[in-house]
Sequence to fold (206 residues):
Amino acid sequence: MTDGPWLVVGLGNPGPQYAGNRHNVGQMVLDELARRTGASFGGKGGGVLSRRPQASVAEARLGMLPGGVPGPRVVLAKPTTYMNVSGGPVAALARYYDVPVERVVLVHDELDIPFADVRLKRGGGEGGHNGLRDTSKALGTKDYVRVRVGVGRPPGRMDPADFVLRDFAKPELKDLPWLLDAAADAVESVVTEGLERAQLRFHTKS
Fold:
């Protein structure tokens, strides 16, 4: 592993009206990572934060390496733009912190994965996810890591766009803390062990 920081971005929409939506599960995972590390998100305040536009940012070390060494430096970021224009903040943060694309991790909702499953990949298509599409465009590449948090398919003939902009259903809420914990574990595994080992861990059913 290299000494440079990782950029971990949780996708979602800004504002309290969206906070509990399925589309915002990536930002919920970032809140869990901040809780674990004791980090606090800063926004458009004074000082250096004022030069990090359109994102709420926290810096921390994540996980533990062998021998009890603190894990890699991470920049945790939640764009304050709407989902469809997430790419600008991601690219700006990557430039600001000099993070190469191989250490950029996006955490996002995934319709094509059953609720409560977590999958990891680097690159590939965006599957109709506008946040990913805009990020790929802004970065000029698709070769960043995705932590894909399963929210399942909409019931019946519900429009997927409507489904992801609804809060989790009551039966899902009891499992949501477990899902957020698993997704946070997946991010931690990526930055401390590497993507391939993390995939072996999270793609193998116990």
